[in-house]
Amino acid sequence: MRINDCTTLERDGGIAIITVDSPPVNSLSVAVRKGVAEAMMQAAGDSAVAAVVLICGGRTFFAGADITEFGKPVIEPDLRALQQIVEDMPKPVIAAIHGAALGGGLELALVAHGRIAVPSAQCGLPEVRLGLMPGAGGTQRLPRVVGAARALEMMTSGDPISAAEAARLGLLDRIADEGALRDEAVAFARAVAADGAPLARIRDRPLVVEQGLFDAFREANGRKFRGLMAPESIIRSVEQGIALPFPQALENERALFCALLEGAQSAALRHVFFAQRQAAKVDAISADTPIRPIIRVGVVGAGTMGGGIAMNFANVGLPVTIVETRQEALDRGLRIIRRNYENSAKKGKLTAEQVAQRMACLTGSLALEDLADCDLVIEAVFEQLDVKQELFRRLDLIAKPSAIVATNTSYLDIDRIAEVTGRPENVLGLHFFSPANVMRLLEIVKAAKTDLSVLATAVALAKKIGKIGVVVGNCYGFVGNRMLAARHAQAEAVVTEGALPWDVDRVIRDFGFAMGPFEMRDLVGLDVGWNRATSSGATVREMLNEMGRHGQKTGGGYYDYDEKRQPTPSPIAEQAVLDFSERHGGQRRIVSDEEIRDRVLLAMVNEGAKILDEGIAQRSSDIDLVWINGYGWPAYRGGPMYWADTVGLPVIRDKLKALHATHGEVFRLSPLIERLVAQGKDFASL
């Protein structure tokens, strides 16, 4: 029997089977909620029905709420009303899970009287990733099943757990064979009905919490939760729920949820969520743009970047040939890759078999000719134009005509690299971020002659290897590093004028970054891109490099580092700053935190506006994704362009004009900002 467009009700003997099929992920939309509620009512009133199985069609169980409904008037039944119907059913309800039971989907499963899943299924409450918390009983029911400590870990991380782990914790009652979920769920429902025992509800279980758990959990995760509101709200909901009757605990949870939903952090994180969906939609690429098959990948360079890049493809089972110039360098690179995988195995993230499988995908070579059968070749060699051009000349003669040849350059002109080949249409930039096997961002750089099929293939491949691919245009530094250069310039300028490096870092950390620009430079290495032969003490960074202070790896840069690499402000670096200021800036002055923040961040926004105006980025949210996933912009602030919109472009314009008047051409206002203000629009409107 069809209940509505997405819900059916049928019987298998005395078992009612409610099936929901609402692609793509069976989100708990109004239509889904109404369909399930009506089917439950009919099953409850049918004397021939002894038990109910709730199952989904398509590729997954309910994968969460319909996020497009957030902030809109509630249409009944809402999720909590639907849960009440299921939980109060006079007949046992079995949730049959495949794919993923996430967010509201898992909260709905938690009010069923039993849960069964296939081995490949996952369960989780990922609301924290949207700046939210479970709002339909998750903070009260999950701790009663898996224990308060494990529930806090799951909810504050948002990470799903496997079916095996869920069964071990008691979250699942049974594991079904793959492909047999429906039959085994029906059998489970029959067994529960035949047992005749009173229906067990999770809400009736005691919530047992060990003494001191909440304070210890806060302390252990303080750094990770810094600046975030949702994790603390989750902890408070569980903590406060102990002393409350269950209905009041649910109301308390709901109040905390609603406060987050109406807050700025969740709005920003929802913006990021939709930005990730939008990034894959590239104006120039249509549905019929062909995707080229990528069966084998080549990587030139086995260093930090090359090795990390190769791991991305081995992770998804693609064979990779890694080419180096010296056996020693090749052996070292493969050894580091193996160590990375083995470290993951020690942490329980991989099995020994998976480590072996991934290493088997990797083949080392000292001959570029071994890349002749690769469908994609990525170079990760020294960041110098003539070096890369010479390599591309050689690759052009070796790679098969259909092969895509990509450069991992961070700054260089890709058109200059492509022009030395006979196949510029097959050349593009694939700018991975270090460490390439960890960082999610991939800037996909379209050169002037890059074929659209090459671009479409890169977008699809980014998704396959788990990256957030953002298509950008070709210019110095592309999107991320071009804006980073503007940030660095202002960070160095305020230090020359009167601030100290740790002042700047503190202001940027207070804004929400994990580290400031000078801490980041020490981490990366002050000597990256520095040449001793041409160094002339033209910047504080050059002066420090000339002293042998290259950052953390030498025990000192802008900061001094102990044996655990813990930083303290360096008197040596401070003196270098004072000496440099005396030679280049004259009288030092007090630079306020507000000025530091405005100059550093507004320089980025202004540069981002120029990037948009030039068509280097398709949309402002693409810029936001680059900075959140590649440079540590706090996600709960939505990215630099979103943040500028929240401040208000008229305010941004006025501040930039004031900075231009004081500090000159570097702050000349982007014409785009001027136009948008005049039209009463913002970056998001583009």
UniProtKB/TrEMBL annotation:
<keyword id="KW-0276">Fatty acid metabolism</keyword>
<dbReference type="InterPro" id="IPR001753">
    <property type="entry name" value="Enoyl-CoA_hydra/iso"/>
</dbReference>
<keyword id="KW-0511">Multifunctional enzyme</keyword>
<dbReference type="GO" id="GO:0004300">
    <property type="term" value="F:enoyl-CoA hydratase activity"/>
</dbReference>
<keyword id="KW-0442">Lipid degradation</keyword>
<feature type="domain" description="3-hydroxyacyl-CoA dehydrogenase C-terminal">
    <location>
        <begin position="477"/>
        <end position="561"/>
    </location>
</feature>
<dbReference type="InterPro" id="IPR006176">
    <property type="entry name" value="3-OHacyl-CoA_DH_NAD-bd"/>
</dbReference>
<dbReference type="GO" id="GO:0006635">
    <property type="term" value="P:fatty acid beta-oxidation"/>
</dbReference>
<dbReference type="GO" id="GO:0016853">
    <property type="term" value="F:isomerase activity"/>
</dbReference>
<protein>
    <submittedName>
        <fullName>Putative fatty acid oxidation complex alpha subunit</fullName>
    </submittedName>
</protein>
<dbReference type="Pfam" id="PF02737">
    <property type="entry name" value="3HCDH_N"/>
</dbReference>
<comment type="pathway">
    <text>Lipid metabolism; fatty acid beta-oxidation.</text>
</comment>
<dbReference type="GO" id="GO:0070403">
    <property type="term" value="F:NAD+ binding"/>
</dbReference>
<dbReference type="InterPro" id="IPR008927">
    <property type="entry name" value="6-PGluconate_DH-like_C_sf"/>
</dbReference>
<dbReference type="Pfam" id="PF00725">
    <property type="entry name" value="3HCDH"/>
</dbReference>
<keyword id="KW-0456">Lyase</keyword>
<dbReference type="InterPro" id="IPR036291">
    <property type="entry name" value="NAD(P)-bd_dom_sf"/>
</dbReference>
<dbReference type="InterPro" id="IPR029045">
    <property type="entry name" value="ClpP/crotonase-like_dom_sf"/>
</dbReference>
<keyword id="KW-0576">Peroxisome</keyword>
<dbReference type="InterPro" id="IPR006108">
    <property type="entry name" value="3HC_DH_C"/>
</dbReference>
<comment type="subunit">
    <text>Monomer.</text>
</comment>
<feature type="domain" description="3-hydroxyacyl-CoA dehydrogenase NAD binding">
    <location>
        <begin position="297"/>
        <end position="474"/>
    </location>
</feature>
<keyword id="KW-0560">Oxidoreductase</keyword>
<dbReference type="Pfam" id="PF00378">
    <property type="entry name" value="ECH_1"/>
</dbReference>
<keyword id="KW-0443">Lipid metabolism</keyword>
<keyword id="KW-0413">Isomerase</keyword>
<feature type="domain" description="3-hydroxyacyl-CoA dehydrogenase C-terminal">
    <location>
        <begin position="598"/>
        <end position="681"/>
    </location>
</feature>
<keyword id="KW-0520">NAD</keyword>
<dbReference type="GO" id="GO:0003857">
    <property type="term" value="F:(3S)-3-hydroxyacyl-CoA dehydrogenase (NAD+) activity"/>
</dbReference>
